[in-house]
């Protein structure tokens, strides 16, 4: 199962369509190119799927989604483990 997971933008890379995003303590580079034209900044929340930010969401929605995902157990744990092992250069 593939899930879309909320993450908080920590830093936007100036010369590439990438941002460092924190997902429950795991930091990874995420492609933000699909949100071209959207005003993004550190502290914003995005919904991430397979290494791409799919949409900008508000913090309340992000935290509610994380609580729901944590409640589903193994699928969420598997997705976080995959995120830990992934890399976008």
The proportion of residues in beta strands is 25-35%
Distance N to C terminus: 24 Å
Task: State the helical fraction.
Answer: 25-40%
Number of strands: 5
The Cα radius of gyration reads: 12 Å
Low-confidence stretches: none
Q: Please, what is the average pLDDT?
A: 86
Structural class, judged by helices and strands?
A: alpha+beta
State the order of secondary-structure elements, H for helix, E for strand.
EEEEEHH
Overall geometry comes to globular
Q: The biggest beta sheet, please?
A: 5 strands, antiparallel
How many H/I helical runs?
2
Oligomeric state of shown chains? single chain
Question: What does this protein look like?
Answer:
With 89 residues, the protein is α+β, with helices and mostly antiparallel strands. Helix content is 28%, strand content 35%. It is built from 2 helices and 5 strands; from the N terminus they run βββββαα. It has helices spanning 59-71, 74-85, and strands spanning 5-12, 18-23, 26-31, 45-49, 52-57. The protein has a 5-stranded antiparallel β-sheet. A hairpin with a 2-residue loop joins β2 and β3. The radius of gyration is 12 Å and the shape is globular.
Q: How do the strands and helices of this protein lay out in sequence?
A:
Blueprint: E1 5-12, E2 18-23, E3 26-31, E4 45-49, E5 52-57, H1 59-71, H2 74-85
Quickly list its features:
single chain; about 90 residues; alpha+beta; five-stranded antiparallel sheet; about 35% strand; globular
């Amino acid at each position: 199962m593939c899930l879309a997971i909320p993450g908080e933008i920590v830093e936007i890379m100036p010369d590439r369509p990438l941002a460092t995003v924190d997902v429950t303590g795991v930091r990874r580079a995420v492609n933000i190119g699909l949100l071209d034209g959207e005003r993004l900044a550190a502290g914003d929340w995005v919904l991430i799927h397979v290494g791409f930010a799919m949409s900008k969401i508000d913090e309340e929605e992000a935290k509610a989604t994380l609580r729901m995902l944590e409640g589903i157990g193994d699928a969420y744990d598997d997705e976080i483990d995959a995120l830990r092992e992934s890399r976008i250069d």
